[in-house]
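Let's practice the habit of predicting before peeking. Look at the sequence and jot down your guess about where helices and strands might fall. Then scroll down.
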Amino acid sequence: MIQKNSSKGSTAPLVAVGVLLLVALVALGVFGVGYFKARNVAEIRDEALVGAQQVAINLNNADAANLDASIANMRSSVTGDEMTTYLQTVQDSITDELRNSGSKADTEVVQAALSELNTDDRTATALVVVKVTTTQGNQYVKNQLGMRLGMVEVDGVWKAQSAEPIGNRVDLDSGTLPGTDGSAGSAPASGAPTVPGVPTSPDAVTPAPAPSEGGDTGGQ
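Done guessing? Here is the structure:
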């Protein structure tokens, strides 16, 4: 006698397994996309913030012994007509006296955050506070400056398409470099590095510190 297996009974468990697998795959797709999107936004935010900090350093660093290289470094950090024109103006104003002054400005980031981020357009607004130490001979001056940078990603590199000060430069300290007797050299002018990378505003107020966390707007 030939026995026939019930197709209904044998396929039912397979159908159930298939349904569960489909549900699992759909869930993985939904949550997976969300996870990777969130991760992508976080990576873009980090890259934009790191880029803004480097731009702030490059725009304020300057060495009178090699001003052409300093300007070239600034140019590599900006994009667009506004910033390019400004840096050309700065370069045109360099005098032989300035080149021979022996001044040097070194910059470090004190605080930085993004206030805006658009992941679609790859643009961001960064608030950066930097400390600039300007030396000339054996004398030094330390200033603090707040900056608002309009950032945009160009060929994988974040550059500034706009830059403006947040308030005036704040004098922090000045004096004679450690290990020197103070008998030579004159103190550098207080208030600006040798070649300022950011226009100053006479109407600005004392800079407020940048917020510790920036938000994302648009493009998410």
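How did you do? The longest helix spans residues 7-60.
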